[in-house]
Amino acid sequence: MANSFTRMISGRNTAVMLASIGAGTLVSGYLLSDSTAAADRKRVYPPSADYPDLRKHNNCMASAMTPTIYAHLRDKTTPNNWTLDQCIQTGVDNPGHPFIKTVGMVAGDEESYEVFDELFDPVIKDRHNGYDPRTMKHHTDLDASKITSGMFDERYVLSSRVRTGRSIRGLSLPPACTRSERREVERVVVTALSGLKGELAGRYYSLGEMSEREQQKLIDDHFLFDKPVSPLLTAAGMARDWPDARGIWHNNEKNFLIWINEEDHTRIISMEKGGNMKRVFERFCRGLKQVEQLIQERGWEFMWNERLGYILTCPSNLGTGLRAGVHIRLPFLSRDPRFKKILDNLRLQKRGTGGVDTAASGDTVDISNLDRLGRSEVELVQIVIDGVNYLIECEKRLERGQDIKIPSPIPQFRK
Amino acid sequence: MPFGNTHNKLKMNYSSEQEYPDLSQHNNHMAKVLTPEMYANLRDKETPSGFTLDDVIQTGVDNPGHPFIMTVGCVAGDEETYEVFKDLLDPVIEDRHGGYKPSDKHKTDLNSENLQGGDDLDPNYVLSSRVRTGRSIRGFCLPPHCSRGERRAIENLSIESLDLLDGDLKGKYYALKNMTEEEQQQLIDDHFLFDKPVSPLLLASGMARDWPDGRGIWHNDNKTFLVWVNEEDHLRVISMQKGGNMREVFTRFCTGLTKIEGLFKERGHEFMWNEHLGYVLTCPSNLGTGLRAGVHVKLPNVSKHEKFGEILKRLRLQKRGTGGVDTAAVGGVFDISNADRLGFSEVELVQMVVDGVNLLVDMEKRLEAGESIDDLMPEQK
After folding, report:
1. Does residue A327 have a known ligand-binding role?
2. B262/chain A closest Cα distance in angstroms
3. What are phi and psi of A305, to 5 degrees?
4. N or C: which end of chain A has fewer CB within 10 A?
5. Last residue of a domain, which of B50, B73, B97?
6. What is the ipTM metric for this complex?
7. Could you say which DSSP state residue B180 is in?
8. Mind listing the domains of chain A with CATH numbers?
9. pLDDT for res B321
10. In whole angstroms, what separates CA B380 from the centre of its chain?
């Protein structure tokens, strides 16, 4: 849980403080030096010459981008010298799909969200269904004891899982990081994880160094991640230098797993077969807190602020970065025409059991929370628990030939 | 990435050892040459437009290569890359181009009159003839590094100039992002259309950014002269036709190139060229002439001969499948072209292809007739 120290630091103060740690006396948003040929090129090519052609595009970045915003931001850089063009390259290169609206931009570092807020803020609002980073605050709550009714009927729920991401403050994010920064992330996280004890004790498998047998085992356990092939990720530069400093850590019980330097600095996953979501979430929170403590002992912390919650590479994962979900069999309900509306009102999302962008196999679907930002972890997990319990009730009623009701929509953001 | 140095200064906060890439699994020219010492010496440098050492080598770090195929593993972001990073690129060039030294001079010869013969490669065997090269416009960054504004400026310059070609070369430009379905299908049927690169070698170097913005295809009405704009280089220029009249193909090639160069000069732009490296292109493998002259030729018997590889080597020729680089031959038909790019002039390279292909066809005829080809074995050129 983010402690009071991290909460003191927010917004622009962060950028200035970090800038003074990381890169001399540079201030966020400074203009490139005028003495280079790069500056000459800027004069020859005004922003209008470089404005991307987004007419065929359907992503959040393209919806929010205007020539005015581009002109304001093109020549700015973060203290780490990351530019707007680098943030939006993935959205320019991947026009998107008429049905699936991708985000279309990434952050290169924590300061990106500040320096380029003129573009990030409307994108965040669009993606997070109205969350306004300029006026709203995000609340973090990792106290799993608040969860109620977190044990599902296992005739329906086959497995339960909670995942999130965390970024190490002071180091650039995967699109931008240098090899040494990426190696530093690996070092910091692996050192911290080696301090985990008891049920959480485990070991690290570096992608570049694992043996054939270890690799096969990780594949069989469904733990192994591969070099990204999605053009959304490769266009953002996240696959550079693969597999240098990438790896997988998991505990001996195989129910707590961490990916290092894939799409974020870390992805943390708690999972088990069956329906004990409360226990999955308890382990999740316990593990996260312990890892946070262990990195703090060495002077590191997670990127977090009260505007945006936990800072991750993709704006879609801001806030909690949390996806809590189950694999659940709903043979009757999944065929009912009201299924989508029920899910919408419960603020849930269905996916195939292969994860995002896959189709459901048989009667089993992946059900998880829609939202990431604007509600705390506890609130989102409770929403999933209450929602899944409702879905199971519907399924049972349909089994008995009884009718079901579409529930009233639950409010999206906390009051 | 344009307009900046991709936070080179941030990297200087870390030591060279910490930043040095892991090249232990790698087999490409860059990996063979880049020692930790060299990395330490070059990593704080950048070209005037901000291209850095890591930009040069990223594609080679991301693509370890293949035990049998030695890729180059580095690219240029602008003309100055070859100067600022010469400590890396000179040995890469020497390795790739058969011992070409930093002090060597490259000869350019685009006078097709100097070619001997070449108008009568046997059309019973030679199905088509083709010559291609690339050109870069001086003053602009190259595809790995150029901004959208620069790429569009290159496109506009190219369209303006190409539109003024006349006679046998008169033609039309098709922008990739604007073409109609019919135009697209026609270009596919003519085998002219190029697509967004999928090769990780190209993607990792940033050449496919902003696709298809600023990219297009120009060809003459006769469909024998074709220019690709902003694919892997600023311009790729191709002359081709069915049959074995390589001389005609090369003459059109030289005439067209010379005219295009003149038209660009009228607009105040010249091609990147110097007397050491010849024509400067994105990939070090295409320096010098950037020229690949080749034929599609039926060699079902010769290709099965145990000395086929040796023959090609001595003739300084290279075989590919008819789908181009990295494809396999189909039905005994091979793409045979010059192996060299740098250190020989255009005329010399086309001459090697003409003479070499004539010899291969003679060998094919001998083998067809059940005769030996031992007396035809060439010396090493």
Report:
1. yes
2. 24
3. -150, 165
4. C
5. B97
6. 0.89
7. -
8. 52-128 (1.10.135.10), 144-400 (3.30.590.10)
9. 83
10. 24
